[in-house]
Amino acid sequence: MIGRVGRIIEGKSVNFSLVATMRKAQASAKSGLSMRNVLCMWWKLVIWLSILFCLFAFLRIQQYSQSTLADNSSDLPRSSRNFSDHFDGNPKVAFLFLARRNLPLDFLWGSFFENADRAKFSIYIHSDPGFMFNASTTRSAFFYDQQLKNSVKVAWGEASMIEAERVLFEEALQNPANQRFILLSDRCVPLYNFSYIYNYLMKSPRSFVDSFLDKKDVRYNPRMSPVIPKNKWRKGSQWVTLTRRHAEVIVTDDTVFQIFRNFCKRRPQVDSSGGKKNLKLQKQHNCIPDEHYVQTLLAMNDLESELERRTLTYTLWNQSKTNLENKFWHPFTFSYADSGPQQIKRIKDIKHVYYATEFRTEWCRNNLTSVPCFLFARKFSQGAAMRLLSQGIANNFDVSALLEPPP
Fold first, then answer.
1. Which DSSP category does 235 fall into?
2. What pLDDT digit, counting tens, does each position of 114-167 carry?
3. The Cα angle at residue 117 between residues 168 and 83, in degrees rounded to 5
4. The overall pTM is greater than 0.85
5. 310-319 burial, b if ≥16 CB within 10 A, otherwise e?
6. Cα–Cα distance measured from residue 2 to residue 269, given in angstroms and rounded to the nearest whole number
7. Residue 384: is it exposed, middle or buried by C-beta count within 10 angstroms (0-12/13-18/19+)?
8. What is the DSSP letter of 324?
9. 99 and 143 in contact (C-beta within 8 Å)?
10. pLDDT by residue (tens digit) across 280-328?
11. Measured distance CA(82)–CA(39) in Å, rounded
12. Taking a C-beta distance cutoff of 8 angstroms, is the pair 259, 227 a contact?
């Protein structure tokens, strides 16, 4: 009996062990299945989150790109830009002032525009970013709010100079009535009244671009080729006057400007205390972009036959010598004493320009008629500008007003 009971108990014990083992196996199987399910669900979640993140990032990039393109049209390919040519009324001359900050000769230009037909001109000023032309910064109401909103910081001898020029041309092209575009410095003065200048420009179908081939040129950088071939490299004054068609060529340029930005750079200025360092600096390639860009671009587009290859802005160049640079040219600044009737008449009587490097004489003509070469001159001090006013270059101006500071 005891043995039977023992066997029964032992049998039950065995059954209990088997059940326990089976339950553990089932639990283990369920646990393994559960872990695989969890891992599978986890990876699916990771994949979906990754897809959602990528989609979100793509949409943000698209949104940012569209916003940027809407706010800044300069990000668009320039070659794809179109400018309207339809307008009613008189064709206009766009006066494009490239200023350091303010316009020191605003009183002279204010008098000049006072005597002009306001339906025949427009004004654009490129100044330091953020500088505003208003009653506290200029004496002439003609310049109020005429500054560009998208101006760039300009450094002399850098690509930023031609970038500023392009911004001016682009802004002026928005008005289809603008048919002539005059680039002027903040120290330029008009040598004639508005009517004479307007008729002079409108009678000519050509642009006025000082452009010549300098056979002794050392500014061309071989790294510019093959985009800019050496035989298309030109030099000249940056103060150009363009027709609308040629202004559009400047603004829609996608390639040449980038080459200039990369390979036409001014050599760092020489420091007299630099010693041997200066010798190293002098070996660097030296290029002044604003004296080559417009001329070279128009030559590359085979437009030189459509140009009067001379500038309308007179500059008197001084040559000085230093220990570090054998030759350095800079524009002469006209003072009050240098701006008398005889000096101005001498400029206005110039009828031709000789280009020694090309053995070329450029006779100043307008539709086969001999005309004065220059309509403007630079650089003039405020005293010189006052004297021009007294000579009747611009009329109806009270010189005593200059004695009072701007309001």
1. B
2. 989 999 999 999 999 999 999 999 999 999 999 999 999 999 889 999 999 999
3. 35
4. no
5. bbbbbbeeee
6. 116
7. buried
8. S
9. no
10. 555 567 899 999 999 999 999 999 999 999 999 999 987 554 444 444 5
11. 58
12. yes
